[in-house]
Amino acid sequence: MDYVTMQKLCSLSATLPYWWILWFASIVTFGSAADARRLVDGDDVTLAKESCDLAIAIGVISFLLASFFILSHYEFLTCCGPCRTWMSYGGIFELTIIVFVDIWQVIATHTLTSAGKIGSTITGQGEGVAEDYVPGSNIYFAVWASLAASMSITVKWKQARAMKFAQTQNEVNEEERLGDDEEA
């Protein structure tokens, strides 16, 4: 009866579902890049190694930022007054960070999916010992999903801010009503 569904988990904010998509896509980016790095580790393939290292960094940073905002949506980060105000979802801090993530994801998508890079192909290209060898990976789809998710967060931010404002107003009205009942 009381099953936890993705709809229930993501209904707190308009941006939360997209933070989850960014979180999952970041894990795929990191995992695929780490696996590809392992495949080219013994070979003399400098271009593929640099591309893998960049994809690992992009995956880790995006994962950490998405994790932070997922936790803030569920109010796990309410340790102090400033944390509850400026680190909450729908705030200017979220907008500032997501604009940074948007820029980060545009650069990542451009860099990793360009010709000869790790995300340029799913099936791989070249031979295992050739200089132009690039292993196949899921990075192509993951970086595009990350870009789409980050852009969606930016677009939905205003709606999340309005939802947060309405929720705060309901809490204030409820406290005022309780205060009036106690006085009477």
Describe this structure in words.
Keywords: Membrane, Transmembrane, Transmembrane helix. The chain crosses the membrane at residues 12-34, 54-74, 86-107, 139-157. With 184 residues, the chain is mainly alpha-helical. The chain has one domain. It is 70% helix and 0% strand. It contains six helices and no strands. The protein has helices at residues 6-9, 16-40, 46-73, 81-86, 92-112, 139-183. α2 (16-40) runs antiparallel to α3 (46-73), α3 (46-73) runs antiparallel to α5 and α5 packs antiparallel against α6 (139-183).
Output the radius of gyration. Answer: 21 Å
Low-confidence stretches: none
Strand percent estimate: under 5%
Helix-strand string: HHHHHH
Shape: elongated
What is the average of the pLDDT values? 76
Q: Give the total of beta strands.
A: 0
First-last Cα distance: 40 Å
| Helical proportion, percent range | over 70%
Q: In terms of structural class, how would the helical and strand content be classed?
A: mainly alpha
Mind describing the biggest β-sheet?
none
Number of helices: 6
Overall domain count: 1
